[in-house]
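Summary for the lay section of the report: proteins are chains of building blocks that fold into shapes. Here we show the chain for 50S ribosomal protein L3 glutamine methyltransferase and then a coded description of the shape we predicted for it.
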Amino acid sequence: MAAPNKPSLDTLGEIFRFAASRFRTARLAYGHGTTNARDEAAFMVLEGLRLPIDRLDPYLDLRPTAAERARLLTLIDARVSLRLPAPYLVGAAYMHGVRFHADQRALIPRSFIGDMLADGVLPISDAGKVGRVLDLCTGSGCLAVLAALTFPRARIDAADLSAGALALARRNVASHRLGDRIALHRGDLFAPLQGKRYDLILSNPPYVDARGMAKLPPEYRHEPRMALAAGDDGLDLVRRIIAEAPRHLTKDGALICEIGRGRANLEAAFPHLPFLWLDTEQSEGEVFWIARNDLMGPRASRPAHES
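The coded shape description reads as follows.
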């Protein structure tokens, strides 16, 4: 017997339309891999049954078993009632077709830096010459994995303060069989990496300011606070990264860092630094690139209030 107030939901297409309708009515927040109710519903029904997530159309007439149907309806109910992000519910997230395990020990995999790695738009002339890469604040390890795929000859160090996040990162590194190229380190920023230098340091650190933290939708409050909150202006960790990065970059090395909507604050804090802003189809002024030589310039690493 069909549940009260629900359609028969015999096919995946009917379940998808039901989910999208419920999500719209509930006015959910998105941003963890999708941007709207239809895409969220498609992702959940496909990943919920471990089907390829790139196209829904071939599966619209599929008739799930009673157990599969019950699982999908439970996921849909949880998405609405608990406001948990979809990747936490299904245990997976994707970046450019690469699948990552996801759970509440780390931020859900997402980063404009990942887009840049996958699309090959970084100002690097020869990816094959990149020998050492550091992923700072690695979280789930998603950027470390994408960096390993982008730079085929590179060895990757990935660091994070959270033991739980590193356990998840270890699982992702293992699932992509990259344990021989990616080494995980626990510690506060560069602390566990003394003496090491890199051709490229990439980081998607905590960067949400106090005002932004106060306004986070419920979905984002399920993510680890320590991976989001970064002080009054969102630059607590970014300041330290900029100050310490030169000691860990090779002569021609560079830092790429995502800071969300903190561009104005960053440029005010470091008016002497020639940041190169890298954009994607979905972002503008949220990721900067800066070479070691520029970081080493006169007074470069000193914030404006210390000048």
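Put simply, here is one thing we learned. The first strand starts at residue 92 and ends at 95.
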